[in-house]
Batch of 4 targets.
Target 1
Amino acid sequence: MEITRDGGCACGEVRYRLTSDPLFTHCCHCLNCQRQTGSAFVINLLIESDRVELLAGEPQAVEVPRDDGSTQTIYRCPVCQVAVYSEYSRPEVRFVRSGTLDEPGSVEPDVHIFTRSKLGWVTLPSSAPAFEVYYDTKSLWPPSRLERLAAVMSPAG
Ligand SMILES: [Zn+2]
Ligand SMILES: [Zn+2]
């Protein structure tokens, strides 16, 4: 039995349900995430887009410039503008912002990334691996999660 998690924006217009556990959970300390959140880091639940079920509202896609010249699509509530999830290069996987979950404490980061720009006063736990920049998905994700990723990245037929 998979665990489901609900979340939403601040005003209640957008409500969503994650129909299973995430693939993996990132705590990202990069400068883009710091700027986008106005905070020290962001916690993203990586999950297949078809496992993010909209219960109410329609998040609005906003193209946000990144330091490398690319853009990132951030989905925001059309009313209160809270960002609920984002997309990077592939639309098959959503990056759900864990602070928008009804129970943000129900997930912990599986990995800390871009620690080269981590703020000095943030102390990382020893319970999760940390990387200066990024990591090798194949060596860190459990096999069952890699299978799930492969299933959405190369659908049959
Ligand atoms: Zn809202
Ligand atoms: Zn980041």
Note: The mean pLDDT is 95.
Target 2
Amino acid sequence: MQLMAIKIRNTPTISGRAALARLRDGNRRFVADVRSKDTLPSRARRIELTAGQEPFAAILGCSDSRVPVEIVFDQGLGDLFVIRVAGNIVAPSQIGSVEFAAEQFGTRLVVVLGHSNCGAIQATLEQLQQPKENQSRNLHAIVDLVRPSVENLLATDLKHDLDELVHQAVRANIKASVNHLRHGSEIIEYLIQKDGLLVVGAEYSLETGEVDFFEDAALV
Ligand SMILES: [Zn+2]
């Protein structure tokens, strides 16, 4: 078994559960319009971090300018290992980034953070309904990764209710990314089974600022 060869280079500083609680607290502060003084960037903290980093969570979020990860979770320098890509999709480089955080820094929480009215999801739905022939190959690569989780929805009555269709598609895409990451590599599977790594899915609401952790490992 190759799994036996996996050596974890770092011990977790805080558990996945504790990390999740910290993110929930930070998002509550953000929604309430209060900020923790501890998370304000400072010269002292910057210097302190030159010695190394121990981000307590890894977040795979969307590139959307309205969902800046550190801000919506009220976190500071060195707190979060952030991967952002349109549509919070999972390709090998995202899996590699998550492996890196978990292995090198002992990060034991991974959150896939999608959001309401995601443009990448809307573009995919549009492309499925009215394919554009001149779509760029690179954009196509994103649409292709979103497509499997949303195209079934287009075969249902949801196609008559655009808002609900996008809402369900956003969640389906988050779930697909969570599943993909959970089974994305031997290292990640090993850490989930043996070392308490949590991979959860959440949706950020542009309207309320709230993050709903609707796809939680504890519920699976
Ligand atoms: Zn988006």
Note: The radius of gyration is 18 Å.
Target 3
Amino acid sequence: MIKSIFDSYGTPILIGLFAILFLLETKFRLRERVQSRWKRIFINFIVSIPAFALLRVLFIPSMVWLAAQNQQWKFGLNHLLDLHPWLILVITFVLLDYSNYIWHIMLHKIPLLWRFHVVHHTDLDLDITTAFRFHFGEMIGSILFRGVAIILIGASPLMVLIYEIAFEAASQFHHSNIKMPFRLEKALNYLIVTPRMHGIHHSIIKKETDSNYSIIFSFWDRIHKTVRLNVHQNEIVTGVPQYANERELTIGNLLKMPFTKIHEWKDSERTFDENVNQMKQ
Ligand SMILES: [Zn+2]
């Protein structure tokens, strides 16, 4: 099933999407760059290789295996509800996304997990290649958490694969540096996470990073009041304040970063506007 769904459909879709978004962000840039684009492409792709390998050989097979086992155990919400199969598919998709919203908050709030997630946030620019800049340790942690979520929800192997493809596509989209027509983005943002919304999550201001945790659907942040849209994109400085020295952010340092002493977040000031729900250009 992994071969027929993920490899035959998912991978070409994700590669095609990458090519389109890459070209769009080249032509319509949202935020100014502070680093050389090609150097970042190189660093982010090398850092992503172990994480990608783990995704394909360990993460996806173990999630699908667990979901298949659970079809026999019949554990989880979907096995308790006697609903139409289509409705079950929708509920599963939405709840898998909710579990990833919670996981993303845990990555920020639990010091052991932040050690790994910080590697992703040290990127000094934000674009589609940031979507690949994850430490492989984060991938291992997510196997445990997402495995539990799959069991509790009672997700089927097919839904696990469909959600995974959608998750990767959404991550490419919201990390991209594409300047979309403002009204179109505002309309899309009522339902899904968009580049401006996620750009605020990568700010060096703590209050801004501590917002916009959603992955696909943006309403999790609205429901939990963790949404913040009132920041102009050209006011955002991307990164983590204590890791702002470009020369220290080498491939070697990024890979060993979780095993070193993690610097505390020292904030700079910004006056906050009250209306957090008002998206700004
Ligand atoms: Zn984050």
Note: Residues 104, 108, 117, 121, 201 surround zinc ion (CB under 6 Å).
Target 4
Amino acid sequence: MKPVEILKRLIRLSHELGREDRRLAILGEGNVSADLGDGTFYVKASGSQLATIEATGFTRVNFAPVLEALNHPDQIDEAVRNVLEACRVDQQNKLPSVETFLHAICLKEGGAKWVGHTHPVSVLGILCSQLGAEPFRRHVFPDQIVVCGRHLAVVPYVDPGIRLAVALRRSVRRFQVEHGVAPKVILMVNHGPVVLGQTDREVLNTMLMLDKWASVLLGNYSVGEPRFLDGKNSDRIESRPDEHYRRRAIGKLR
Ligand SMILES: [Zn+2]
């Protein structure tokens, strides 16, 4: 896909994620990125709004300096800003989001081509509670396993920026060792989810299903306890061939 087409799709994905009625992100919250396959990626610029973003709201960034900065997680804010300025392919572009580091990890180590991060009211309703990410470790209905994956990765609260990206990298690596695949969803406690996709559509679908899952859980807790599926049934859904077919079909939905 040509960079201009990727940019067009990133704008569309941003507008979908930023829709006011979906309550996934308001104001400058959230960001998206996509790998261009040539050692660079597009990421939302700092201060842009998902709902209204245009082409100038994105910055093309080199992977190398962003990943290199992760070797020095204790850099002061000024040094981080220098990295964000220097990593731009075109110095005329705006400063990329401070969450550029996190996107670089998802695209390089998480095997994603497209990444979306939001702060949904529903998901934060649980992630910011005393339960944290615990309710998401089990399932309450089959489609969440089909779309979001059998297991989610979790990152404890860390100050956004390089240190958060390092914590997220640790979580992604541990997940890959435990499950043999990359996660589709990473939950950052007291912050929000990151969704990893092979297509722009997959990122949107997964985010919408995660939002529904969280809303259902909130409903369950409001009338008592969720009736969780047992692990065996969840594993079965994950491995059923017809569910694999359904997953591919959902990924192609336009
Ligand atoms: Zn965020």
Note: The longest helix spans residues 200-222.
